[in-house]
TrEMBL record:
GO terms for molecular function: GTP 3',8'-cyclase activity. Its EC number is 4.1.99.22. Transmembrane segments: none annotated. Residues 5-221 form the Radical SAM core domain. Binds 2 [4Fe-4S] clusters. Binds 1 [4Fe-4S] cluster coordinated with 3 cysteines and an exchangeable S-adenosyl-L-methionine and 1 [4Fe-4S] cluster coordinated with 3 cysteines and the GTP-derived substrate. It comes from Simiduia curdlanivorans. This is GTP 3',8-cyclase. [4Fe-4S] cluster 1 binds at C21, C25, C28.
Length: 326
């Protein structure tokens, strides 16, 4: 069976394995964020069961995310189980801090591509943006991932106009020198933050290309990928320079993805509250995969057609990206 929303086959899920994180990035969570009690979070077995149900429904790509997926105790068990499913892609989004410990195991479990978040190469700025992180941890994580030989490693950088926009050319140089890809992301208004104004910090992808332009020649890539990033290349280099532009270049029309939060909510859209409670089904009817699949199929029919992010009003979505599963 295939699951469709509008004319799009849903073949990609983001599975959040925890809402916890060792960093507290300023755009992603508040300084005093409290995490969910353990009993509310899906167990490792439930995570695998949900992944399996989606694959039986035709999903061929799973990205494991969080919170920080690699701080979840026993998480490699989930990768090992998901790695046995007939998937085209098993991928991971991580802040990189635990990669020196887990890179080899992840590769062995079948993870081929990983995304690592890195917003700046300046150690003081890194500490300011992540509140608790050390730049060197992430640089070591990138190195560990390269050493075990993942097919592609992509950096994700959320760019804030007055905080790290000036560092964008340096990040471009870093990915070119290290044979990495990068996506620059416009900040999304998820959850309420007090440290900066999302409207004042907004930096559009077009503005970023203007910042990069004088230093690097950017040519649009002919063969784009199916995801939300629009890619460019610097002639003579393999690195892909991507831009994810939820505000300035809305990509809802081609969205073929849904998310499962760490507490088992099937979220149909990042920018809307439409959701179904998969954990409730799993716990009320353990082992009943057909019922789980029927719930998923039914939920997909309410996938909204687009988000309506508005930088100037209070966030309409009170969930932070870390609890949604970014
Ligand atoms: N902890 C992992 C990490 O940082 O890569 C995985 C989870 S994190 C929520 C996934 C992605 O969401 C990261 O690339 C992060 O930069 C991005 N993100 C978090 N909050 C965001 C926001 N408000 N707007 C845009 N992207 C955001
Ligand atoms: Fe943690 Fe990732 Fe959110 Fe940063 S973006 S606080 S690393 S979940």
């Amino acid at each position: 069976m295939l699951i469709d929303a509008f004319d799009r086959k849903i073949d990609y899920i983001r599975l959040s394995v925890t809402d916890r994180c060792d960093f507290r990035c300023v755009y992603c969570m508040s300084e005093d964020m409290t995490f969910m009690p353990r009993a509310q979070v899906l167990t490792l077995e439930e995570l695998t069961e949900i992944g399996t149900a989606f694959v039986e429904l035709g999903v061929s790509k799973i990205r494991v995310t969080g919170g920080e997926p690699l701080v979840r105790k026993g998480v490699t068990q989930v990768f090992k189980q998901l790695g046995k499913l007939p998937l085209k892609e098993l991928t991971l989004t991580t802040n990189g801090s635990q990669l020196p410990k887990y890179a080899a195991e992840l590769k062995a479990a079948g993870v081929k591509r990983i995304n690592i978040s890195l917003d700046t190469l300046n150690p003081a700025k890194f500490r300011e943006l992540t509140r608790t992180g050390e730049l060197q941890q992430v640089l070591d994580g990138i190195k560990a991932a390269q050493d075990v030989g993942f097919e592609r490693i992509k950096l994700n950088a959320v760019i804030l106009k007055n905080r790290n926009a000036v560092e964008v050319p340096e990040l471009v140089q870093f990915v070119l020198d290290n044979h990495l890809d990068i996506s620059f992301i416009e900040e999304m208004p998820l959850g309420s933050i007090v440290e900066h104004s999302r409207a004042l910090e907004f930096c559009s992808s077009a503005d970023l290309r203007d910042i990069i332009g004088p230093k690097f020649k950017l040519e649009p890539l002919q063969a784009q990928t199916a995801g939300p990033s629009r890619y460019w290349q610097v002639p003579g280099y393999h690195s892909r320079i991507g831009f994810i532009s939820p505000h300035s270049e809305n990509f809802c029309a081609s969205c073929n993805r849904v998310r499962v939060s760490a507490e088992g909510k099937l979220l149909l859209c990042l920018g809307n509250e439409h959701a179904a409670d998969l954990k409730a089904i799993l716990r009320a009817h353990p082992g009943d995969r057909e019922r789980l699949k029927a719930t998923i199929v039914q939920a997909i029919t309410i996938k909204p057609e687009r988000h309506h992010f508005d930088l100037n009003s209070e966030p309409q979505i009170v969930r932070f990206m870390s609890s949604t599963g970014g």
